[in-house]
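Researcher: Next sequence.
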Amino acid sequence: MATPRFYSPTPLTPHHTIELAPELAHHAIRVLRLKAGTDIVLFDGQGGQYPATLIIDGKKGLAQTGAQASIDVELAGDITLVQGIPSGDKMDWIIEKAVELGAKRLIPIAAQRSVLQLSGERLNKRQRHWERIALSASEQCGRNRIMQIDAPLSLQAYLAQIDLTAQQALFCHPEAEQTLAQALTPGLTRITLLVGPEGGWSTQEQEMVKRCGIAPVKFGERILRTETAGLALIAATSALQGWY
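Model: Next structure:
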């Protein structure tokens, strides 16, 4: 059985006893039913991880950390997924798998064809929910850094802030002339992939993207669902660029 891994919101130091955050302690002791003395692994999102021993003190959970292990399983380059917000819980799946595939950042876009529109407290709750999914996925897949999830933006607001001098940006379109392999620039270490929601980008959004100098690309001859397209592009980009 693999050693249980947990994200600690408390910064970690070697050879130190820390009190676990209540939610973490509840999950380890009440949900997983780990016993005192169990070997666990903690990471705080700053890189590296710490072997630790679980300590149970009444309802509290503590951990005695060991020496930091400088384990890094990040991709050799940075991939950002700019994802048009899909309906239902499809974004949960996209976030989980984007973490597993090594994406560094995900930017949700409230696209013109996004069925799900978020604002106010509903937006705040959904943002926290997405962040928890990213943390859980990192615990599972062995990443010691957390994929950044931005607050949702309109496409226009996102394009107003993008810097294309240090990265290549590509947007997924089933009728594009170039394939991903043809469009990618060898040697670049920062790539951004734009994927629309169900129904794709509107005509107006496509024009905005093109005016920014972002090239359309297609991924094969089939039309992919929004929850498939971004993940396929991340995996293919990693392989084509030699990032593992």
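Model: The radius of gyration is 20 Å. Helices lie at 22-31, 90-101, 120-141, 155-161, 180-183, 203-211, 226-241.
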